[in-house]
Write a sequence for this structure.
Protein backbone atom coordinates (compact mmCIF):
# COMPACT_ATOMS: atom_id res chain seq x y z
CA UNK A 1 0.00 0.00 0.00
CA UNK A 2 1.29 3.44 -0.96
CA UNK A 3 1.60 5.80 2.03
CA UNK A 4 2.63 9.43 2.41
CA UNK A 5 3.69 10.07 5.99
CA UNK A 6 3.23 13.40 7.81
CA UNK A 7 5.29 13.98 10.97
CA UNK A 8 7.96 16.18 12.47
CA UNK A 9 9.37 15.43 15.97
CA UNK A 10 11.04 12.39 17.55
CA UNK A 11 7.63 11.15 18.69
CA UNK A 12 6.76 10.42 15.04
CA UNK A 13 9.90 8.48 14.07
CA UNK A 14 8.74 5.04 15.29
CA UNK A 15 5.54 5.44 13.29
CA UNK A 16 7.22 6.16 9.97
CA UNK A 17 9.78 3.42 10.63
CA UNK A 18 7.08 0.84 11.35
CA UNK A 19 5.08 1.81 8.28
CA UNK A 20 8.12 1.81 5.99
CA UNK A 21 9.01 -1.69 7.15
CA UNK A 22 5.68 -3.10 5.92
CA UNK A 23 4.39 -0.73 3.22
CA UNK A 24 5.62 1.57 0.47
CA UNK A 25 6.19 4.98 2.04
CA UNK A 26 6.55 7.08 -1.09
CA UNK A 27 7.33 10.38 0.65
CA UNK A 28 7.59 12.04 4.04
CA UNK A 29 6.13 15.48 4.78
CA UNK A 30 7.48 17.45 7.73
CA UNK A 31 7.81 21.03 8.87
CA UNK A 32 10.73 23.17 7.64
CA UNK A 33 14.13 23.11 9.35
CA UNK A 34 14.28 25.40 12.38
CA UNK A 35 17.12 27.22 14.15
CA UNK A 36 18.01 25.56 17.44
CA UNK A 37 20.41 26.02 20.33
CA UNK A 38 22.37 29.07 21.36
CA UNK A 39 24.04 29.25 17.97
CA UNK A 40 20.67 29.13 16.16
CA UNK A 41 21.99 26.56 13.74
CA UNK A 42 19.44 25.30 11.24
CA UNK A 43 18.69 21.68 12.06
CA UNK A 44 16.39 19.19 10.34
CA UNK A 45 13.46 17.79 12.29
CA UNK A 46 13.97 14.21 13.50
CA UNK A 47 11.56 12.72 10.96
CA UNK A 48 13.45 14.36 8.09
CA UNK A 49 16.77 13.07 9.43
CA UNK A 50 15.38 9.54 9.65
CA UNK A 51 13.79 9.71 6.20
CA UNK A 52 16.94 10.94 4.49
CA UNK A 53 19.04 8.31 6.25
CA UNK A 54 16.66 5.69 4.88
CA UNK A 55 16.48 7.04 1.33
CA UNK A 56 12.94 8.43 1.42
CA UNK A 57 11.75 11.53 -0.42
CA UNK A 58 11.21 14.48 1.96
CA UNK A 59 8.90 17.42 1.31
CA UNK A 60 8.78 20.46 3.64
CA UNK A 61 6.07 22.80 2.38
CA UNK A 62 5.82 26.29 3.80
CA UNK A 63 2.27 26.68 2.46
CA UNK A 64 -0.38 23.99 2.48
CA UNK A 65 -3.50 25.63 1.09
CA UNK A 66 -2.50 27.45 -2.11
CA UNK A 67 -3.17 24.41 -4.30
CA UNK A 68 0.46 23.51 -5.04
CA UNK A 69 0.83 21.14 -2.09
CA UNK A 70 -2.46 19.45 -2.89
CA UNK A 71 -1.26 18.90 -6.47
CA UNK A 72 2.03 17.47 -5.21
CA UNK A 73 0.20 15.09 -2.89
CA UNK A 74 -2.08 13.90 -5.69
CA UNK A 75 1.00 13.13 -7.78
CA UNK A 76 2.14 10.76 -5.02
CA UNK A 77 -1.10 8.77 -5.49
CA UNK A 78 -1.30 7.64 -1.86
CA UNK A 79 -3.70 4.90 -0.84
CA UNK A 80 -3.61 6.36 2.66
CA UNK A 81 -1.79 9.17 4.43
CA UNK A 82 -0.49 8.60 7.96
CA UNK A 83 0.15 11.41 10.42
CA UNK A 84 1.90 11.62 13.77
CA UNK A 85 2.62 15.00 15.38
CA UNK A 86 2.97 16.88 12.11
CA UNK A 87 2.10 20.15 13.85
CA UNK A 88 -0.10 21.82 11.22
CA UNK A 89 -3.84 21.67 10.53
CA UNK A 90 -4.94 20.19 7.20
CA UNK A 91 -7.98 21.42 5.28
CA UNK A 92 -10.57 19.26 3.54
CA UNK A 93 -9.14 19.34 -0.03
CA UNK A 94 -5.93 17.76 1.30
CA UNK A 95 -7.81 15.29 3.50
CA UNK A 96 -9.74 14.16 0.41
CA UNK A 97 -6.64 13.18 -1.59
CA UNK A 98 -5.88 9.63 -0.35
CA UNK A 99 -8.59 7.11 -1.24
CA UNK A 100 -8.58 5.67 2.29
CA UNK A 101 -8.17 9.04 4.00
CA UNK A 102 -5.73 9.98 6.76
CA UNK A 103 -4.91 7.99 9.87
CA UNK A 104 -3.46 9.75 12.90
CA UNK A 105 -1.50 8.53 15.92
CA UNK A 106 -2.65 10.46 19.00
CA UNK A 107 -1.00 9.66 22.37
CA UNK A 108 -4.07 9.63 24.62
CA UNK A 109 -7.19 7.57 25.15
CA UNK A 110 -9.47 9.71 23.02
CA UNK A 111 -11.80 11.46 23.49
CA UNK A 112 -9.70 12.38 26.56
CA UNK A 113 -7.04 15.04 25.96
CA UNK A 114 -7.83 16.20 22.46
CA UNK A 115 -5.22 18.80 21.58
CA UNK A 116 -1.46 19.38 21.42
CA UNK A 117 -0.17 18.26 24.85
CA UNK A 118 -1.87 14.97 25.77
CA UNK A 119 1.21 13.27 27.25
CA UNK A 120 2.25 16.15 29.49
CA UNK A 121 -1.37 16.74 30.53
CA UNK A 122 -1.79 13.13 31.64
CA UNK A 123 1.34 13.34 33.82
CA UNK A 124 0.55 16.80 35.18
CA UNK A 125 -2.89 15.61 36.23
CA UNK A 126 -1.48 12.55 37.99
CA UNK A 127 -3.23 10.02 35.73
CA UNK A 128 -2.30 6.38 36.35
CA UNK A 129 -3.25 5.24 32.84
CA UNK A 130 -3.02 6.73 29.37
CA UNK A 131 -2.62 5.17 25.93
CA UNK A 132 -2.55 5.61 22.18
CA UNK A 133 -5.38 6.05 19.71
CA UNK A 134 -5.19 5.54 15.95
CA UNK A 135 -8.01 7.48 14.38
CA UNK A 136 -9.39 8.89 11.17
CA UNK A 137 -8.65 12.60 10.64
CA UNK A 138 -11.49 15.07 10.22
CA UNK A 139 -11.60 18.86 10.25
CA UNK A 140 -12.58 18.96 13.93
CA UNK A 141 -9.50 18.52 16.11
CA UNK A 142 -8.84 14.91 17.18
CA UNK A 143 -12.51 13.99 16.77
CA UNK A 144 -12.36 11.34 14.04
CA UNK A 145 -13.52 7.74 14.31
CA UNK A 146 -11.24 5.38 16.23
CA UNK A 147 -9.53 2.50 14.40
CA UNK A 148 -7.53 1.15 17.34
CA UNK A 149 -6.88 2.10 20.97
CA UNK A 150 -4.62 0.60 23.63
CA UNK A 151 -3.94 1.52 27.25
CA UNK A 152 -0.57 1.97 28.93
CA UNK A 153 0.07 2.47 32.65
CA UNK A 154 1.99 5.58 33.77
CA UNK A 155 4.69 4.93 36.36
CA UNK A 156 4.38 7.00 39.56
CA UNK A 157 7.78 8.63 38.93
CA UNK A 158 7.73 8.50 35.12
CA UNK A 159 8.37 11.82 33.38
CA UNK A 160 6.59 13.11 30.30
CA UNK A 161 9.82 12.64 28.33
CA UNK A 162 10.07 8.99 29.33
CA UNK A 163 6.39 8.39 28.65
CA UNK A 164 6.73 10.00 25.23
CA UNK A 165 9.36 7.46 24.22
CA UNK A 166 7.19 4.54 25.30
CA UNK A 167 4.04 5.80 23.64
CA UNK A 168 5.95 6.60 20.44
CA UNK A 169 7.01 2.96 20.16
CA UNK A 170 3.52 1.71 21.00
CA UNK A 171 2.00 4.12 18.50
CA UNK A 172 4.35 3.01 15.75
CA UNK A 173 3.35 -0.62 16.13
CA UNK A 174 -0.33 0.35 16.19
CA UNK A 175 -0.01 2.52 13.07
CA UNK A 176 1.44 -0.42 11.14
CA UNK A 177 -1.34 -2.69 12.45
CA UNK A 178 -4.04 -0.29 11.26
CA UNK A 179 -2.35 0.18 7.88
CA UNK A 180 -2.27 -3.61 7.46
CA UNK A 181 -5.99 -3.80 8.24
CA UNK A 182 -6.81 -1.04 5.76
CA UNK A 183 -4.78 -2.79 3.06
CA UNK A 184 -6.60 -6.06 3.79
CA UNK A 185 -10.03 -4.38 3.79
CA UNK A 186 -10.68 -5.49 7.37
CA UNK A 187 -10.33 -2.16 9.22
CA UNK A 188 -13.25 -1.08 11.41
CA UNK A 189 -13.97 2.30 12.99
CA UNK A 190 -15.85 3.40 16.10
CA UNK A 191 -17.18 6.96 16.56
CA UNK A 192 -15.90 8.94 19.53
CA UNK A 193 -18.20 10.04 22.33
CA UNK A 194 -18.04 13.81 21.91
CA UNK A 195 -19.87 14.36 25.20
CA UNK A 196 -16.94 12.75 27.05
CA UNK A 197 -14.27 14.85 25.31
CA UNK A 198 -11.68 16.86 27.20
CA UNK A 199 -9.06 19.21 25.79
CA UNK A 200 -5.48 20.26 26.49
CA UNK A 201 -3.45 23.28 25.43
CA UNK A 202 0.19 23.91 24.63
CA UNK A 203 2.13 24.54 27.82
CA UNK A 204 3.52 28.01 28.51
CA UNK A 205 6.62 28.92 30.49
CA UNK A 206 4.40 29.91 33.41
CA UNK A 207 2.94 26.41 33.54
CA UNK A 208 6.29 25.28 34.93
CA UNK A 209 6.28 27.64 37.92
CA UNK A 210 6.27 25.78 41.24
CA UNK A 211 3.81 26.82 43.94
CA UNK A 212 5.29 25.42 47.14
CA UNK A 213 1.97 25.86 48.95
CA UNK A 214 0.49 23.12 46.74
CA UNK A 215 0.51 19.48 47.94
CA UNK A 216 3.76 17.59 47.45
CA UNK A 217 2.08 15.13 45.07
CA UNK A 218 0.90 17.95 42.81
CA UNK A 219 4.39 19.48 42.69
CA UNK A 220 5.86 16.05 41.98
CA UNK A 221 3.46 15.68 39.05
CA UNK A 222 4.52 19.13 37.81
CA UNK A 223 8.19 18.16 37.93
CA UNK A 224 7.40 15.01 35.94
CA UNK A 225 4.99 16.59 33.48
CA UNK A 226 6.94 19.74 32.67
CA UNK A 227 9.76 17.79 31.06
CA UNK A 228 11.43 18.49 28.75
CA UNK A 229 9.78 21.93 28.61
CA UNK A 230 9.11 24.27 30.32
CA UNK A 231 10.65 22.38 33.29
CA UNK A 232 9.57 22.95 36.91
CA UNK A 233 11.06 26.25 38.08
CA UNK A 234 11.45 28.19 41.33
CA UNK A 235 13.85 30.66 42.96
CA UNK A 236 16.70 29.74 45.26
CA UNK A 237 19.14 32.32 46.62
CA UNK A 238 17.43 34.83 44.33
CA UNK A 239 18.13 32.89 41.12
CA UNK A 240 15.81 30.87 38.92
CA UNK A 241 16.57 27.16 39.12
CA UNK A 242 14.94 24.00 37.82
CA UNK A 243 13.84 20.93 39.77
CA UNK A 244 14.27 17.87 37.56
CA UNK A 245 13.64 14.81 39.78
CA UNK A 246 11.64 14.46 42.97
CA UNK A 247 9.79 12.01 45.19
CA UNK A 248 6.97 12.48 47.64
CA UNK A 249 7.49 12.18 51.39
CA UNK A 250 4.02 12.00 52.97
CA UNK A 251 5.11 12.95 56.50
CA UNK A 252 4.30 16.53 57.44
CA UNK A 253 7.10 18.84 58.62
CA UNK A 254 7.26 22.12 60.47
CA UNK A 255 7.99 25.23 58.46
CA UNK A 256 6.40 27.33 55.77
CA UNK A 257 6.00 25.85 52.28
CA UNK A 258 9.33 25.99 50.43
CA UNK A 259 11.40 25.69 53.61
CA UNK A 260 14.19 23.08 53.56
CA UNK A 261 13.49 20.65 56.39
CA UNK A 262 16.43 18.25 55.99
CA UNK A 263 19.61 17.89 53.93
CA UNK A 264 20.70 14.31 53.28
CA UNK A 265 23.42 12.75 51.13
CA UNK A 266 21.33 12.37 47.98
CA UNK A 267 18.23 14.45 48.58
CA UNK A 268 16.94 17.67 50.08
CA UNK A 269 13.54 17.64 51.78
CA UNK A 270 11.25 20.66 51.37
CA UNK A 271 8.01 21.49 53.16
CA UNK A 272 4.96 21.94 50.93
CA UNK A 273 1.29 22.68 51.49
CA UNK A 274 0.74 18.98 52.17
CA UNK A 275 3.61 16.61 52.92
CA UNK A 276 7.22 17.07 51.87
CA UNK A 277 8.99 16.93 48.54
CA UNK A 278 12.39 15.27 48.21
CA UNK A 279 14.54 16.96 45.55
CA UNK A 280 16.72 14.36 43.84
CA UNK A 281 17.99 16.24 40.79
CA UNK A 282 18.59 19.96 40.55
CA UNK A 283 19.63 22.34 37.77
CA UNK A 284 21.17 25.65 38.87
CA UNK A 285 21.04 28.58 36.42
CA UNK A 286 23.33 28.16 33.42
CA UNK A 287 24.45 24.68 34.49
CA UNK A 288 23.55 21.12 33.64
CA UNK A 289 21.13 19.11 35.72
CA UNK A 290 22.86 17.07 38.43
CA UNK A 291 22.00 14.73 41.25
CA UNK A 292 21.74 16.37 44.66
CA UNK A 293 24.83 14.48 45.90
CA UNK A 294 26.92 16.15 43.19
CA UNK A 295 25.34 19.55 43.71
CA UNK A 296 25.76 19.47 47.48
CA UNK A 297 29.43 18.56 47.12
CA UNK A 298 30.13 22.05 45.79
CA UNK A 299 27.16 24.01 47.07
CA UNK A 300 26.31 23.37 50.73
CA UNK A 301 22.65 23.84 51.66
CA UNK A 302 21.36 24.28 55.19
CA UNK A 303 18.05 23.33 56.78
CA UNK A 304 15.89 26.40 57.19
CA UNK A 305 16.85 27.91 53.83
CA UNK A 306 13.95 28.43 51.49
CA UNK A 307 12.88 27.87 47.92
CA UNK A 308 10.60 30.62 46.66
CA UNK A 309 7.58 30.20 44.41
CA UNK A 310 7.36 32.00 41.07
CA UNK A 311 3.63 32.53 40.89
CA UNK A 312 2.57 35.48 38.78
CA UNK A 313 6.02 36.40 37.45
Amino acid sequence: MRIVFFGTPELAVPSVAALAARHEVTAVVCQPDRPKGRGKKMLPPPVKAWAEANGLLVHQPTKLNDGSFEAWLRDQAPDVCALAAYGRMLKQPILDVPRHGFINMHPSLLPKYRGPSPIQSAVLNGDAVTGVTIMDITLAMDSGDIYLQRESAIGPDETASELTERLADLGGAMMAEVADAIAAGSATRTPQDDDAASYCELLSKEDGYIDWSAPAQRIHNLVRGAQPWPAAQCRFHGEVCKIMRTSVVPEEAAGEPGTITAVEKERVLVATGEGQLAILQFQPPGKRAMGMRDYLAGHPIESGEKFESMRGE
